[in-house]
Amino acid sequence: MLGWRTIYYTLLNLPLKFLVRSKVIPKDPRTEVGLDPRQPMMYVLPYNSKADLLTLRIQCLKQGFPDPLTPLHIDGVILPRYIFIHDGLRVLSFCVEKLQSVSLFHNYLDLHLLNPELDVQLVPVSIMFGRSPGREAQPYQVLSQLRLLINIKKFFAVLWLGRDSVVRFSQPLSLRYMATKHGADKFITQKLTRVARIHFARWRLAAAGPRLPLRRNLFSKLLTSKAIEKAVEDEARSKKISVEKAQQNALKLIEEIAADFSYEAIRLSDRILGWTWNRLYQGLDVRNAERVRQLADVGHEIVYVPCHRSHMDYLLLSYVLYHQGLVPPHIAAGINLNFWPVGPIFRRLGAFFIRRSFKGNKFYTTILREYLGELFTRGYSVEYFIEGGRSRTGRLLEPKTGTLTMTIQAMLRGGSRPITLVPIYVGYEHVIEVGTYVKELNGADKKKDGFWQMLYGLRKLRNLGQGYVNFGDPLHLSTWLSQKVPQWRNYIDPIDKHRPCWLAPAVDDIAAALMVRINNAAAANAINLCSSVLLASSERLLTRQQLLSQLACYLDLLRNVPYAPDITVPDLTPDALLSHALAMNKFTIQYNSIDDIICFSREQAVLMTYYRNNIQHMLILPSLVANIICGRPGIAREQLHHQIMILYPLLKAELFMRYSKQEVPMVIDRLITELGRQGLVKMQAMLLYPTLARFNALRLFAASVSETLQRYAITCLLLRADPQLNRAKLEKKSCIIAQRLSILHGINAPDFFDKAVFSTLVTTLHTEKYIIDSGCATDEKISELCEILSKLITPSIFCIIKRSILLVKGSPNIQ
After folding, report:
1. Which fold does the domain 615-702 belong to in CATH?
2. Helix 362-378 / helix 402-411 crossing angle, nearest 10 deg
3. Using one digit for the tens of pLDDT, what is the confidence trace for 703-739?
4. pLDDT above 80 for 255
5. Taking Cα atoms as reference points, which of 7, 98, 8, 82 lies closest to residue 41?
6. Considering only CA atoms, which of 507, 515, 510 is closest in space to residue 307?
7. Average pLDDT of 497-510?
8. Residue ranges per structural domain of the chain
9. What percent of the chain has pLDDT over 70?
10. Do domains 216-520 and 524-613 have the same CATH topology?
11. Structural class in CATH, domain 524-613
12. Taking the C-alpha atoms of 38, 42, 46 and 49 in order, what is their torsion angle to the nearest 10 degrees?
C-alpha cells in the first residue's frame, strides 16, 4: 500500500508543480505567527484533499519548514505529520489512509504526558483554490458553505484556480501547553477538533466572505423592513403621492446605492492591479495586517476607516486586503464616481454609492441606514472614508460622522458579531491629484469627475514611488461604548425617530479617536522628510551636506523618541533616503564643485507642502520646543513646559495629536534629552540654551512650526483687537490676513489660509474658554496667548500681522 501511495503522490505532484502558484499568508510565517522550524511541527488541514496536502508541501519546502509527508518519530512511535479535520469524499479510497483526527490528537497528547520535554507545534493551515463565496441559492439548492469537493470538482478547481490559490499559516498551538493544562482525555481531543473546525470556518468566511445575495431578493427584503415601510408611508404622506409610487422611489434609491459584488471582477482586477502597481509603484509597504487577520479569526465584523488622500485609495486598500487573504470590503463611494464606465466597474468591486449631502432627507437616510445595516447583518466587511472627501492639504480633515452614526445604529439592533473599527493610514510618495488640490485651495472650481477627467488623470500615471498602508490600533465599538456610555445597551429600538441623547457626543468622541489612531500609524518616507527639511529653510534651498545632516537629525529623533508605537520610519541612511527622493524628480539640483545645492522652485514648494503635512503631527512638538529655545535662549524648563502646555490644545485639535495634557511634560523632557544628545541644545545652570555650533540645525527644526504659530497669532490678535467679533467674521478676517501675509512674506502653502484650518482653531478657542459662550473673548487668557506668540514669531511678521488687522478693521468692504 505504501508503494501505491508513493506512486499516487508522485503522479499527482507533477501537474501541481505547473498548475499551482500559491500565495503564502502571512508573507513571513516565522516572524508574523511565530512558527519555529526547529521545533517538531504537525499540520492541521480542514479537508482530506491530497491536492491541498501537496500544495502545502510545496510551500513548506520553500519556507524551510518540515515536509508534511515525512512522519514524526517520537519515542519509537511513528505518527503522521498532518491531520485532516474532515475525512471528505474519496474516489480512490485505496490510495488514502483513513485518518481519525480525534484519535490522532489523543495519541499526540498521550506522548506529551509521557515525555515532559516534548513540545509539538500544532499548525492550522488553510488552502483555498479560488475565493468565490457563491450565490445565495434557492431553497431547493441550499448546501452548506463548507461542502467538500469530490475529486472531479477539485481537479477543475486546481486547473482553473491554481494560480489564485492561498496557503494560510495560522498561529501555532503548543501541544505541551494543552497536555499540561488540560490532560489528554477524549473530551479534550474532541474539543480540540471542534475548535479547529470553527477556526477554519471563520477563516473561510474572512477570506471569501458570506454568500452573495440575489439582488432582487436583497431589494425585496429591504423594502419589507419596518423602517423602510414606515419611511415609505411618511414619504407618501408628505409628498401627497401613492404608497406604490413611494415604494418605486425607494426601489430607485436602493438601486442607486447598492453594490453588485462579483468575485470574478475581483479576480480580474487583481491581475490588472498587480500588473499596474508593479509598474507604477516601487513597492507597497504594508504594516500590522495581522491585526485584521486576528479580528477575522475571532469572528469580528470589520469596518475599515482609512484616511483619504487619492482616488487610488479605493483600489489600493482592496488590493492589499485581498493579498492579505481577506475578502475586499463593500466600499462607501461618492456618487460623483458613479459614471460610465467607472461606476459599473466599482459596483462589481464592492462599491456602494452615497450622495455627497443628504442632511434633512429622512427618506434617503433611512434607506441608506437600512442598507448599511443589512451589510452588517449578512457579515460583510465595510469601508468608508470618515473625512468625507479627499484631503486637499495633506493633513487629516474634520471627520464627517453620518456613516459612523449609522454603524452604531446598526450595532444597536443586536447583531450576532461584534463590530470593530480599524483605522488605516494610507500614504504615498506621489499623489497624482496634488496639482489639482493646490488649484482648488487657491480658489479654482472643483472639476466634476467624469470619463474624460479620468482619461486625463491616467496620462499622469508614472513613477509613483512607494505606497504605504499601515493598519492602526482597532477600536472595538461595544467595548468602547461600555466604558464611556454604559447605558448604551438600554437603547434597542432602531425605528424610534428620537435618537438617544448620548449618541451624538459618543459619535464625535469615537470619530476623534479614530483620527488620532490614523495619525498614530503614519509613515515617514523620503519625500515627506526631505520636503519638511527644505520647506523649513527660508530660501527653500540647502546644500547637499546640510540636507543630509538635517535628515539624520529627523531620523534619529523619530527613532529615539517615536511619536507613537505604530509609526514607521525608513530603515535607510540619510544618503540612501536622499538618493531615493531625488530619483522622484521633485527637486531641483544646482550642481557645484564645492557642494551641490538642492532646492524647490516656487511651484514645487507649493506642491510639496502636501507631503510635508502628511507627517506634520509627528514633528510639530519637537519643532515647538526648538522654536522656544531659539527664541528665548536661557529659558527655564518650567517656563518651556508652561508655554507649550498653553499652545498644545490648539495643536492637538488641528493635527489630531495623541498626547493627553498629562503626558505632554514627559514628552517634552524626552525631546529635550534627544536634542541634547544630538548636540543641538545644552543645559547651563538649569537653563536651556541652543548650541552655537549647531544653531542652524536647531533653527531648521524650529522653522517647521512657524506658519502654524503665525496663524494662531492672526486670530488671537484679531480677538484682542475686537473681543466681540463673531465667529463668521473672525474666520473670514483671519483668512484674508493670512492670504495677505502669504503674499507679502512668500509663504508657499495654500493651506496657510485654508478656511477649514481657521474654523478648527476658532472651535478650539471656544472649547478652551478663550471665547466664552456669549461670544466675547476672555481678555486675560487671550492677552497671555498673544504675549507668548509675540515672542515666537519674527518681529517683521508680527508687525505685518498687526498692520493688516488695522487695515481689515478699517476696511468698509470687509464685514
Report:
1. Arc Repressor Mutant, subunit A (1.10.10)
2. 50
3. 999 999 999 999 999 999 888 888 889 999 999 999 9
4. yes
5. 82
6. 515
7. 87
8. 2-208, 216-520, 524-613, 615-702, 706-810
9. 91
10. no
11. mainly alpha
12. 100
